[in-house]
Amino acid sequence: MESTNALECLTALAHEHRLALFRLLVQAGSEGMAVGELAGATGLAGATLNHHLNQLRQAGLVADERQGRVIRCRANYNRMNGLLDFLTDNCCAGSADVACAPRASGSCKETSS
């Protein structure tokens, strides 16, 4: 991933509602969620929800598919993983230090020096 692509993703995620939407879609897995389900889960009005989803779509973090009258949104895991790879590339200058390695558990605890 290039720096400009990473900035697009980070900019899209740098908003409370968009971050919440993206996290909901990640939690939903490959099935994703219908736009109506997202509206119900977040309490966002239709136009506001659409605005935030469009920002995530433009960054390539969300893709959707029409299923009849329903639009189903899904997190783009390849894009998400690309962003994570970009952020952790050369972590601690490639050191094999275990304390430096990103944690898969979701823990974001800082290590003290």
UniProtKB/TrEMBL annotation:
<dbReference type="GO" id="GO:0003700">
    <property type="term" value="F:DNA-binding transcription factor activity"/>
</dbReference>
<feature type="domain" description="HTH arsR-type">
    <location>
        <begin position="1"/>
        <end position="95"/>
    </location>
</feature>
<keyword id="KW-0238">DNA-binding</keyword>
<dbReference type="GO" id="GO:0003677">
    <property type="term" value="F:DNA binding"/>
</dbReference>
<dbReference type="InterPro" id="IPR011991">
    <property type="entry name" value="ArsR-like_HTH"/>
</dbReference>
<dbReference type="InterPro" id="IPR001845">
    <property type="entry name" value="HTH_ArsR_DNA-bd_dom"/>
</dbReference>
<keyword id="KW-0804">Transcription</keyword>
<dbReference type="InterPro" id="IPR036390">
    <property type="entry name" value="WH_DNA-bd_sf"/>
</dbReference>
<dbReference type="InterPro" id="IPR036388">
    <property type="entry name" value="WH-like_DNA-bd_sf"/>
</dbReference>
<dbReference type="InterPro" id="IPR051011">
    <property type="entry name" value="Metal_resp_trans_reg"/>
</dbReference>
<keyword id="KW-0805">Transcription regulation</keyword>
<protein>
    <submittedName>
        <fullName>Helix-turn-helix transcriptional regulator</fullName>
    </submittedName>
</protein>
<dbReference type="Pfam" id="PF12840">
    <property type="entry name" value="HTH_20"/>
</dbReference>
